[in-house]
Specification:
Elements lengths: L1 H49 L8 H14 L6 H14 L19 H13 L9 H8 L4 H7 L5 H14 L3 H9 L2 H6 L4 H10 L14 E2 L13 H10 L1 H8 L3 E12 L2 E11 L4 E11 L2 H17 L9 E8 L2 H7 L6 E7 L5 H18 L6
Parallel strand pairs: 1-6, 4-5, 5-6
Antiparallel strand pairs: 2-3, 3-4
């Protein structure tokens, strides 16, 4: 029996090792394709800008190049792909600022010997502090797969694009997850709840969790629940749909969330109370309570959440944890009621949820309008 067990273990170890090394090889190949495509895009742009053959600009250049590469290398170099490579380089050319891209291997004013020297420098060393070749630097800085970058090219705002690139790499998003976050306008929803400096920080660092408000999105998008946009469903239906699709809901909530309980019960003075959903955020080290409201949010709902938060702060959280956060997810809210009901330092937030994907253009317009208002209020002060 033990020999059979050992043999099965041997087989399983071999199988798992094979699968992992195959996945690693596939990832390595994909990363190499990203580097290759960036370099191809750079070559095309440099060729066009150097004036090497002005009569062949634009589509004609790409058509000739596509035919030549298919003949000498093989498939995968259609005009559409070459156009993608060119755009990829133009949108991400800042990833290797150390390399002086004014030096060109196509300039007609330099000798063949100098052109060969410049090409060798490209592949061997930038001559900068890192003393790394451009391909090596690209491997360090372009950390996603080619399909991820194709999705990112659909984002026109450079700050938003950088945010999604950082978040996809940090959270290990699949291409499908990245596209869902793009479709749900995650960047715009986070930006709308932040001031100018925090919006800029989103683009530099991604979503950083340091305080309760960093968790908040408004609206929260629950299109994956599959519920119709009608008043026919109840709060219980909404809660059940969330539990059934908990993985997608955690992705929508954001970083660091762990699910603890549904309908968490606590009692005092012979009365029983139930919190719809209880989560813990390991990055902020605090409990996050979520109550679901399908009707109009009232001051009684806010007061009830304040009671829940107070209970957790006094009887559940430990000394090393941060104060509990309360979030009311509602399909309708009045910001004035929220502001008047809650004290300024309350750790309670009301966010609308919607069962359909928002218009990225509308949210982007809102972000631009908020930025203008913030900058207008700043007057002539610098910074």
């Amino acid at each position: 029996m033990s020999r059979r067990f050992d043999f099965e273990r041997l087989v399983e170890l071999c199988r798992r090792t094979h699968e992992e090394t195959r996945r690693s090889a596939a990832r390595a190949v994909d990363r190499s394709l990203v580097v290759r495509n960036w370099l191809f895009g750079w070559y095309i742009v440099e060729y066009e800008q150097s004036g090497a053959d002005r009569a062949e600009y634009g589509a004609q250049t790409l058509k000739k190049l596509s035919a030549a590469l298919k003949e000498r290398i093989g498939r995968g170099f259609s005009v559409r792909y070459l156009r993608q490579f060119r755009r990829f380089y133009l949108e991400f050319k800042g990833v290797v600022p150390e390399f002086d891209k004014r030096r060109t291997v196509f300039s007609v004013s330099v000798t063949e010997e100098i052109r060969q020297t410049l090409f060798s420098e490209l592949l061997v060393s930038t001559g900068g502090e890192s003393e790394a070749s451009v391909p090596a630097l690209l491997l360090q800085r372009l950390t996603l797969g080619w399909s991820h970058y194709i999705a990112l090219l659909s984002v026109s705002d450079p700050e938003a694009r950088r945010f999604y690139e950082i978040e996809a790499a940090a959270n290990g998003w699949s291409v499908r997850e990245l596209k869902r976050q793009l479709d749900s306008s995650l960047y715009e929803r986070l930006a709308l709840s932040r001031d100018k400096q925090e919006v800029r920080r989103l683009a530099r660092e991604g979503q950083v969790l340091e305080k309760a408000s960093d968790l908040i999105k408004d609206p929260v998008v629950l299109e994956f629940l599959g519920l119709e946009q009608t008043p026919a469903y109840s709060e219980s239906d909404l809660e059940t749909a969330i539990i059934d699709r908990l993985q997608q809901f955690l992705l929508e909530l954001g970083k660091g969330f762990l699910f603890e309980a549904r309908q968490k019960r606590f009692s005092f003075d012979d009365s029983h109370f139930f919190v719809d959903l209880v989560f813990y955020n390991r990055l902020l080290r605090c409990y996050v309570l979520i109550d679901l409201k399908t009707g109009k949010l009232t001051h009684q709902d806010l007061g009830q959440m304040q009671m829940y938060v107070n209970y957790f702060d006094r009887y559940v959280k430990t000394d090393g944890e941060l104060p509990t956060i309360g979030i009311l997810l509602c399909d309708s809210k009045n910001d004035a009621v929220v502001e008047l009901t809650l004290p300024e330092d309350a750790n309670i937030y009301a966010s609308k949820y919607q069962l359909y994907l928002p218009s990225r253009e509308e949210l982007a317009d809102q972000v631009a309008r908020v930025r203008r208002e913030i900058e207008g209020r700043g007057g002539g002060a610098g910074g």
